[in-house]
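Bug: token stream looks shifted between consecutive jobs. Job 1:
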Amino acid sequence: MRLADRRLTTRFEILGELWGSLQALESLRICNLAPEGALVESFAPLPVGSIQPVRLVQGAQSTEVRAAVRHLSPVYQQGGDGATGWASSFSTSVSRLLRGSPA
């Protein structure tokens, strides 16, 4: 180990391309919700056109859907960091969850 290298673990240099994926779960603030889609606030902007897995939870009931990110816009919160609002459309309807009907 070189004197200036303070890393405790070994790191490997990647030559060329290495594909991978990362999944992070984050609770998000839903501003508007409809059976066809939602307006969601998050601190990490998502790529427009990307498909995101979403779990909607209401009480003991939850529904998992896939949402397509349709557009982004900045959201300015008083006294806080700027968040990103993104509008999405769901691949399946969430009307059963919105009505509060059992699954």
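Job 2, same session, no restart:
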Amino acid sequence: MQVFTWNIAGENPREDFDIGDLLISKDCETLPDIFVVGLQEMVKLNTKSIMQGKNREKVNLWEKIITRSLCKRDRYVNLG
């Protein structure tokens, strides 16, 4: 199992962003069976964003990027 956390500071990723390079080192010989990815500050830290709560579109985008990036290397599924 590999656990990864990242404070994204409310930023939107590029559509083509590949987070796999951060999750998997170049010299990795065997991939873990499970990845746990925690993202902090999904929204900008201002009153309006905090009161509105989750931005579902942004969550979906990050889930898509993480799943796509990992599936380039092996078969993974998102359980989020």
